[in-house]
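Q: I have 140 residues here and want to know how they pack in 3D. Can you give me a structure?
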Amino acid sequence: MIKRTLHFLWGKKFFLLFLALAVILLPNTIGRDFQVRTTTVITEMTIEKQDDNITITAKKFKPASGSESTNYETVTYEGTDVREMLADVSLAHCTEIKFNGETDVDILHELYHYQDLRGNTKVNDTTIGELLRSQNYHYQ
């Protein structure tokens, strides 16, 4: 009886492999928290640079459980290095970047190269792709 059952199961290798992967990977997928609850997701930001100090005022997506509406919260980052300030932040949903004063292309180079900005993100009413192309910046 056991020999016949094992012979039957050995013929169903694909099914057993699929079942084993489901048992191993499914609890991890179900238990994982939403990214917006673990990572700060910025949708808009204003950058102000005075000498070496950079101040970023950003609109952050604030998740609310059970709410149909979208909530936002304002956060402020201060420092001298953009990469350090926005190291734990996702800019994939950032649609607009404003500069108080003149656009600082060096900051845009760092943000575009280091972070996950899109080419259609608006920078003072111009897309970041067009702005960097006009500065002869070659990006991927």
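Q: Anything worth noting?
A: The first helix runs from residue 2 to 10. The beta strands are 40-50, 53-62, 71-79, 89-90, 96-99, 122-123, 126-127.
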